[in-house]
Every structure is written in structure tokens, then in C-alpha cells.
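Ticket #4471: structure export looks truncated?
Reporter: QA, pipeline team
Priority: medium

Steps to reproduce: submit the single chain below to the structure queue and open the exported record.
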Amino acid sequence: MLIDKNNIELIKNNKICLIKNFVSLDKKYDFNFISDLLEKNQLKVVNKTFVGDLKDVFQIKSVSNTVDELKVFFDFLSKLFNYERDSKDEVDLFFSIVSQVGDAHVDTEDVFILGLSGLVLYRIYEEQNKDYYLEKGDMIFIPKGLKHKVIGINPRIIASIGFYGKRIN
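Actual output as written to the record:
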């Protein structure tokens, strides 16, 4: 995992931070992976957009105990940024089968989003709108309370690592 002092400081100061090539992923995260994960672990898919066709965005909640590689990322980020443990802290997967645009929203937790497959644009609404492109192995940090929109440029899979607790200094 590659994260330098400047990126650590940005995150500690609750600033957007995109880290290109954060990690080289061991697993192949594709739709066969999603199918196997669901089958082996009896997990459920939640429809997040209710468009009613293939343009929906889907979520698989709480996968950190089923995917070792994602559990390592969760533990690493939790310890590096010294988050106070909250029962809602977890790794969720989001995926879409076709290109799609999500609604602008604000998260109540700090999120570290790891690109697993595909190309995703994150539009951040601050003083000026800014776009960040996330590819496989890239990570973006979006602090809680910051309005953003997700645009799947093509089919995509991302891991969202969320921390609800505060950071202990």
C-alpha cells in the first residue's frame, strides 16, 4: 500500500485525497467474483438506485469478514488514522453492470473508496466542482459531510470502507 506523508496529512485534515496506484490487488475483482462471493457467503444484494433496469447501482454490505484482502485494507486504514471503533464501521461493495450516474449525496461517515474494477468519476461539490477518476488499485478519501456524486464510466466495482467513529489523536 502506497501512501505518503502529504496524503496522510490531507486525510488527517479532512481533505479530499486521491491516491493513484494505492495498491496492487491480488484478487481479480470482476462479476464472477461477485457471483462467487454471494454464493459462498449467503450475502444479499441491495438495490441502491431503483431505476428498475440494468442502470441500477447495487450494494453488498459488510464484506470485510468474507474477503481477506479487503479486511487488511480496513485494518490498515483504521490503525493508520486511529479511528475510534464504531459498530457501523465496515467494508461494503458497490457495483453497476453498465455506465450510470448516481444521485449527489452526503455520507455520514468518512469513506475510503478503493477501485476494484472499471473507471469511476467522483464529482466533489466544494467551492468549485472537482472531478476525480478512480481506476483499479486507486483510492480516494471523502470526508463525512462532503457532497459528492458517483458516475460509473463503465461497469464498475468499488469497495467503500466507512468509519463512523471519530479519530483519536
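Status: closed, not a bug. The export was complete when the record was re-opened. Leaving a note from the reviewer for reference: The mean pLDDT is 92.
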